[in-house]
Amino acid sequence: MEIKNKKALEWIDEMVKLCEPDKVVFCDGSAEQNKQFEDDAVAEGSMERLNPDLLPGCLLHRTDPNDVARTEKLTFICTKKKEDAGPINNWMSPEEAYAETGANFKGSMKGKTMYVIPFIMGVKGSDFAKVGIELTDSLYVVLNMNIMTKMGQVAVDQLGEDGEFTKCLHARGDLSMEKRRILHFPEDNTIWSFASGYGGNVLLGKKCLALRIASWMAKQEGWMAEHMLILGLTNKKTGKKYYIAGAFPSACGKTNLAMLIPPKEFPDYEIETVGDDIAWIRIGDDGRFWAVNPENGFFGVAPGTSMKSNPNALLTTKKNTIFTNVVKTVEPVEGNVWWEGMKVDPPTKGIDWLGREWTPDSEEKGAHPNSRFTAPACQCPCISPNWEDPQGVPLSAILFGGRRAKTAPLVFQSFDWNHGTFLGATMCSETTAAATGAVGVVRRDPMAMRPFCGYDMGEYFGHWIEMGAKAKKAPKIFHVNWFKQDENGDFMWPGYGDNARVLDWIIRRCEGEAGAKETAIGYVPNPEDLNLNGLDIDAKTLDALLEVDKEVWKAELPGMKEFLGQFGSTLPAEIQAQLDALEERLNK
Ligand code: GTP
Ligand code: SPV
Ligand code: MN
User: Fold this and answer.
1) CB under 6 Å to ligand 2: residues?
2) Is 252 a catalytic residue?
3) Reported pTM
């Protein structure tokens, strides 16, 4: 493999001088070279091979115990002007960031190999794809990038002699929190990640490029980079096909919804998966929103994934998959994987995510709550035939949702685009194990992009308003909540496959066929508007799921005002107008 891009060669040279590796290896993406990388990773001890009869081509990795999730506090947007990062991003000046972490990169690869990973986010050959080059000292990164992106020669071809690319530099360093930094320099199209080995911090094509840097580019270039799943549904009666994108915060159900199987009593739809985490969206000539999944694989949450909850995800991981921080079984079978919520018998003896012996009697969980699988998207049994269409797929609806134990009903529809944008801007969710810090704390996570927006979020809301105004046929916007709880703290809605019933109402609303009642917060289905065929749910629970309590929503207003107030002059007038209108409706 030969890189002919002069800028790329110069930059690689410069970074080699900085990091001082003993050796530089170019990753060409070939099966032979990848096999060699696997063997090398096993030999150095960073990966273990799993049972080849049960899980052919699968590997296991354990991260450092203090390196199990994204570290949002150590993630920075480094723009010349602080205002450009906005009030809710961590900001550092580029000079300070380059100087501080540059000193840590200095000589950090002595005695090690630097791997050069050219990769594409997006569809090969598409003008809507972006090329990156990640330099790393981690084989775990190389092997994951090979699944999550289109890596090697294919990316070098796409880059050409004078193409643009995102400069991505990663070193494991000492894995200390003191030195750990995830730094984004959108003005330089550069990402630096130091002292972590956890997916979201180090697979720089994913959150760092395809969301933070891409959202910045998207704002300049007139498209959108969103933390969204994309699914297709075919109505089996009419044969009509629809696509929906959904923004739910980390570990709030995107992968599960993207692959759902409708319950057998409700066989009206067939679901196909286009993407499970990221959507790049542009307006087509027909005035619709067209969405592309820029990724090549799934980096999915393991715990809770079972043949009951998400068979398609589990089946995707049966070969060529990397498991991180799950239990490795020892007895009665050697070399299988297990995690909490897998709904199969745990091993009588296993090794937990910390590498300790584990049995079902052990007090602590065997798998880390944010343990993950990295699996090729093409292995998903329900992958959409259109998932690599360079044009993308046309969206009928956009969903916002999160974990709300109270307050938000199962589903409601916005009055229009600007109201929908307001719903996204004010959405809330309980924090999860996907990021370090407390779990279960309610926070505002606009469009599920709070940790991933590469610029001022007030400007980002403005971009949403503008995109809606530009599109002749923008998608309808809905809010969903699978996580409403009863007084005992149990989920009231069965979720998973039964979410197809909510998607059905959404599609019928888009077609102007389903009923709803108008409330202060939007259009909410009446119980009879939902198809609940074969679902065992009592009227009281259903009423509670669909309830809009004005007093509860009034109590939300101060929090919304405070949150939106932070943005000052960049908060679009349209969003302020939506807030005022909501207050007026609630007080009527
Ligand atoms: P990221 O990869 O972190 O962006 O997460 P994600 O949004 O793809 O989340 P995922 O689908 O992996 O779900 C995370 C957790 O939520 C898993 O433990 C699921 O079992 C659980 N979950 C998903 N859908 C539902 C649902 O409909 N109801 C309930 N109760 N739990 C769900
Ligand atoms: C998320 O946290 O939203 C993820 C996993 O999808 S990570 O890639 O680690 O960010
Ligand atoms: Mn995610």
Assistant:
1) 70, 199-200, 206-207, 250, 277, 299, 434
2) yes
3) 0.98
